[in-house]
Structure formats: C-alpha cells, structure tokens
C-alpha cells in the first residue's frame, strides 16, 4: 500500500536525495510543516485530465488508487509522515546506515498496517531500540 508492489515504484517513493531513510515527499506544498505525498510526474496523469483548470497532479503513492477515495489519501499521507518520523528517530540512534533506516521504518509501518495500532502497541517494548 505505502511502498508499492514493484521495485521501480518503491525506488520512486524512496527519497534518494537524502541519507535519512525517508520516503519522498511533496516539495511544493506542506501543511504547517507536515509533509504531503509527492506529485505524480508521468505524462498521462488522470488528475490533470479531469480538471485542466486547476492543473494539479495526482499524488504518487504505493497504491494507484490513492487519489480516488479520500480515506486512502489520508492514510497514505499519515503513513508517509509516520515513516519519515520513525526514520529520523532511528537516525538519532544510529546515524551511519541510511538504507537500514529506510528498511526498519518500512518494517514498522508495514507491521502497523497488518496488525493494527492496538495490537502493535501491546507488543512494542518501552525500552529504546538500537540497530546493530
């Protein structure tokens, strides 16, 4: 859902310009400092075709249906923000491993999606985590 099912899409969603393990985010717009998903850059962009006057592109996310139901867009945005928050916290614990930061944050987000927040909270240790 968040990261896409193909490596090519996953690579587009990974912020390659940073060593912080972040997902790519919208560099044009923010919500009081909070990130939005990046815009889609492909030529045949359905959002550009449906509202030519607004000239606003669809969002790029791991699920191609992200722009259709509002709930999907909201969850994609929240998981993007949470991934990046986790990656930054993990960077503080271990500043030397960018790809591992991305993968560890990804594992946590995927666990949150699959088991749900209540179940995950019951199993997360209160002790600070370290990556070795």
TrEMBL record:
<dbReference type="GO" id="GO:0005615">
    <property type="term" value="C:extracellular space"/>
</dbReference>
<dbReference type="GO" id="GO:0004601">
    <property type="term" value="F:peroxidase activity"/>
</dbReference>
<dbReference type="GO" id="GO:0020037">
    <property type="term" value="F:heme binding"/>
</dbReference>
<dbReference type="Pfam" id="PF03098">
    <property type="entry name" value="An_peroxidase"/>
</dbReference>
<dbReference type="InterPro" id="IPR019791">
    <property type="entry name" value="Haem_peroxidase_animal"/>
</dbReference>
<dbReference type="InterPro" id="IPR010255">
    <property type="entry name" value="Haem_peroxidase_sf"/>
</dbReference>
<dbReference type="GO" id="GO:0006979">
    <property type="term" value="P:response to oxidative stress"/>
</dbReference>
<dbReference type="GO" id="GO:0042742">
    <property type="term" value="P:defense response to bacterium"/>
</dbReference>
<dbReference type="InterPro" id="IPR037120">
    <property type="entry name" value="Haem_peroxidase_sf_animal"/>
</dbReference>
<protein>
    <submittedName>
        <fullName>Myeloperoxidase-like</fullName>
    </submittedName>
</protein>
């Amino acid at each position: 859902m968040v990261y896409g099912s193909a490596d090519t899409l996953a690579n587009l969603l990974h912020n390659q310009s940073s060593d912080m393990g972040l997902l790519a985010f919208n560099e044009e717009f923010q919500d009081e400092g909070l990130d939005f998903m990046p815009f889609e850059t492909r030529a045949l962009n359905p959002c550009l075709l449906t509202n030519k006057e607004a000239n606003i592109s669809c969002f790029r996310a791991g699920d191609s249906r992200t722009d259709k139901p509002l709930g999907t867009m909201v969850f994609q945005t929240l998981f993007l923000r949470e991934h990046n928050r986790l990656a930054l916290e993990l960077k503080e614990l271990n500043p030397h491993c960018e790809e591992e930061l991305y993968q560890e944050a990804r594992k946590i987000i995927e666990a949150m999606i699959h088991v749900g927040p209540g179940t995950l909270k019951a199993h997360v240790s209160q002790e600070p985590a370290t990556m070795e």
